[in-house]
Amino acid sequence: MQPRAGYLNTPRLIRVSFSNPTRQTTIMAHLSPSAIFSPSVARQQLAAAKDWNYIDSWLSSKFNGKTPPPFERNNETLKALLALAALNETADEERELLARVEAKALQELQAKDEADPNAQLLHSIEESLTREGQTSLDALSALSVAINQPVPDIEQLGRSIIDLQVSAHDLDQASERVSILEKHLNDELNTINTLVKELQSDAYQPSPDLTKQTIDYQRKTKALASKLPELKDRVASLSASRGNSKVTIQDVKAEENKFKNLMTLVKDLEVQVKSYHGLPQDTDLARLELESTRVELRDLTRQRDSMFEGLVERETPRKTRS
Questions:
Q1: CB-based contacts of 5: which residues, under 8 Å, 6+ apart?
Q2: Nearest to 9 by CA among 94, 78, 90, 82
Q3: How far apart are CA 113 and CA 177, in angstroms?
Q4: Among residues 226, 247, 223, 245, which one has the least CA distance to residue 237?
Q5: Residues 210, 276: contact at Cβ < 8 Å?
Q6: Burial track 228-237 (b if 16+ CB lie within 10 A, e otherwise)
Q7: How far, in Å, CA of 105 to CA of 88, rounded?
Q8: Residues of the chain with pLDDT under 50
Q9: Separation in Å, CA 118 to CA 64, 124, 134, 258
Q10: What is the pLDDT of residues 70-90, one digit of tens each?
């Protein structure tokens, strides 16, 4: 059965006669029992059976008589195969038409060459050339094609060759600059990789007993913090009794020095605890946080010194004029 263009849109008749009994039996085998009592169902099933018979013949021709691979037979598959068969038929027709056109054009060119005395003269000259002449002619034709100059001219060919040499030189210079830039980039990349390995080394890793040190610092901080109220009470009592002759200036200075030393120790311990607490895993972020903590420590130290200076001035008795 030959393919027919526009087979999907071809109207189908209900009454179909077959001269081939085997083909009629094959199509009738696709009919269901319900088709006997329903003309519309019978018409649809007969049309589908004809389509499947056409698809089976087309697949058999494409597989050179071999059995095609098994596939699911449904309406979607049938539509897809019919569309594919129609496209294949169109492509075959176009390919055959193109082959006929090319063959006809070749025949016309050959007939034109045989009738043209100039073409015969060129063929005879080409056949009479020596090996060196043939090589030169091939080189000239290849050069004309390379520089896109159909009619070779010595002056134009020379200019084109010079332009090509200039372009090649510029490309070589650009390639050399790119190579130098690539070398610098590789050097920078190696430096960065070395720095990353150094930052990932054990020198920048926290100590194994960091947890124990942090716990010790926290314990000391709590102990000192518990003593702060007592020290504040002592300072307050000293301030209240500064008029008492029993308390001397030396006693006040001694207490102030003790308090100052305790406060310094507390601040140092707090800074140490904060420096280890909550540090990120990334080394650069840890350094930034450490530097920020140091700036804060310096501010607190200046504040503490100003407070102590004010306390000393306030607690130091002033001499009365006689």
A1: 86, 89, 90
A2: 82
A3: 54
A4: 247
A5: yes
A6: eeeeeeebee
A7: 26
A8: 1-29, 35, 322
A9: 50, 10, 19, 121
A10: 888 898 999 999 999 999 989
